[in-house]
Design brief:
Helicase, Ruva Protein, domain 3, Rossmann fold, alpha/beta, elongated, 7-stranded antiparallel β-sheet, 510 residues
């Protein structure tokens, strides 16, 4: 039997080793297993077992065990409060010492772990005054100085409690961050999915098919089309449906920066590379490694910078500004332009080799004037987005408004359509966007200046129009002369004047 002085020395050394294990960089389960190893090897405490209380219930779940001869690999064992010696410690909230386990009727032996001839000590792992989060149990190799052994087990349990509370909090925060990341990824896929690319015209169906095909490969893509046609939306869809989706998606508008800033922005710079470069900065290509970089307005870069960009596209190599170390990245390139690059190549404004390097898989976005049939669906989709921006305000677009929208040639494309609808929603207190709300955005004046053909004149008796829309359409066709509009509607001037007043129609003076 060990004497008290030797025992205290062993316990102090064991406490030191336990604190080292708990302060290490291992996971919670590895730390708990390490504590049992210290108890076994240095403190003479055999058959160590650690059980933690489930946060969703009051049950104990055995998470680490150790017995003479090696580790135990078993399915998880549970103890309800009050069940067996482990459950008794959890239920009572204080240390239980048994002189000889064979004489204890509460002993269950679920693990086949304990020597029935040896003592048993079970100490609660307590956080704060009352919160018992687990139980630490072991068997001293001899029956002497059990009171001293119990105090030692309580000290170890207190050290474990601090570590369990801290690590559980950290792991919960990590789980929350992982869950938030996954939700954000799902949200991004949803926001940039094919369902957000609206269109059923043949030109748009061709775009959909190209996007689906090119998303499967790491091919360089050049998206072409007028400003406002949705080139960035297509770039997002390609990335979020590609093998690069796990990597970053970095964007840069090449037209927004002069050459010297563009080089620093794309390739980064070393500390002291130029005045104001106080720290090393990674460029967009470096940040986009294992992901996608979207270079918008690629046709606006200068001839001198085109050569530097060509090297990255060909070799995946570059140096930071002011640096000599060659960096290598693996990045998927998506570029976009509204320029006629073929003309620029012919006139020497754009390098031919860079053009062919970019134009591996071209995707041409059709202008909105070539897909007017998509305007009804686009209007509904854009109104949903505008509604969210306005705090979930209900918005509705009427058929009369759609007909007016479809008469415009949309030089600003989808971006202009969205701006028009947003202005109309602001001009409509009720949230109902009709012909008059669209007209108040100035669109109707543009149409009249464009001398719309007679076939496009307003029809006031179209099926689905409500009374207010019919009156407005008739007034427009009659040049806002009430008497003429009354004849078109088979009304008297007095009747139409009454409807103008009760329907709150704002008269125009032409």
């Amino acid at each position: 039997m060990v004497d008290r002085t030797t025992l205290i020395e062993q316990e102090l050394e064991a406490l030191y080793q336990v604190s080292r294990v708990l302060n290490g960089s291992l996971s919670l389960m590895d730390k708990l297993q390490g504590v049992l190893e210290v108890l076994h090897e240095q403190a003479g405490m055999r058959s160590g077992m650690l059980a933690l209380r489930e946060q969703q219930s009051d049950a104990l779940v055995v998470c680490s065990v150790r017995r003479h001869g090696g580790l135990v690999d078993r399915e998880p064992v549970r103890y309800e409060p009050g069940e067996g010696l482990m459950g008794a410690v959890l239920d009572a909230g204080y240390t239980i010492v048994v002189d000889r386990i064979a004489d204890e009727p509460r002993f269950l032996g679920k693990l086949g772990l304990y020597d029935p001839a040896l003592p048993f000590i079970g100490a609660p792992i307590r956080v704060g005054a009352d919160d018992v989060v687990g139980v630490l149990a072991a068997q001293p190799v001899d029956a002497g100085l059990l009171g001293e052994r119990a105090r030692f087990m309580e000290m170890v349990a207190n050290l474990i409690a601090q570590s369990v509370e801290m690590l559980r909090g950290m792991e919960q925060r990590q789980r929350d961050l992982t869950e938030e990341r996954d939700q954000l990824k799902q949200s991004l896929r949803k926001n940039y999915g094919f369902e957000n690319i609206i269109g059923h015209t043949p030109a748009m169906l061709r775009v959909f098919e190209l996007v689906r095909q090119v998303a499967k490969w790491n091919t360089t893509v050049l998206i072409r089309g007028e400003s406002g046609t949705g080139k960035e939306v297509i770039a997002n869809a390609i990335h979020y449906h590609s093998a690069c989706v796990g990597g970053p998606f970095i964007k840069l508008n090449c037209a927004a920066l002069p050459d010297n800033l563009l080089e620093s922005e794309l390739f980064g710079h070393e500390k002291g590379a130029f005045s104001g470069a106080l720290n090393l900065r990674k460029g967009r290509f470096e940040l986009a490694n294992q992901g996608t970089i979207f270079l918008d307005e690629i046709g606006e870069i200068s001839a001198s910078f085109q050569a530097k960009l060509l090297r990255v596209l060909q070799e995946g190599e570059f140096e930071r500004v002011g640096g000599s170390q060659t960096l290598k990245v693996r990045v998927r390139i998506i570029a976009a332009t509204n320029r006629n690059l073929e003309d620029d190549v012919d006139e020497g404004r754009f390098r031919e080799d860079l053009y062919y390097r970019l134009n591996v898989m071209p995707i041409v976005m059709p202008p909105l004037r070539d897909r007017l049939e998509d305007i009804p669906d686009l209007a509904q989709f854009l109104l949903g987005r505008i509604s969210k921006q306005q705090g979930g305000r209900p918005l509705e677009v009427k058929e009369s408004a759609i007909r007016l929208l479809m008469r415009h040639d949309w030089p600003g494309n989808v971006r202009e359509l969205e701006n028009t609808l947003e202005r109309a929603s602001i001009m409509s207190p009720s949230g109902i966007i009709d012909r008059e709300a669209i007209a108040q955005t100035g669109l109707e004046e543009e149409l009249s200046l464009g001398a719309a053909p007679a076939a496009a004149k307003a029809e006031f008796n179209t099926e689905g129009m409500d009374e207010r829309e019919q009156v407005i359409a008739a007034l427009e066709q009659a040049g806002w002369v009430q008497a003429k509009a009354a004849r078109l509607l088979n009304m008297t001037p007095r009747q139409i004047a009454y409807r103008v007043r009760i329907l709150n129609i704002k008269m125009k003076h032409i």
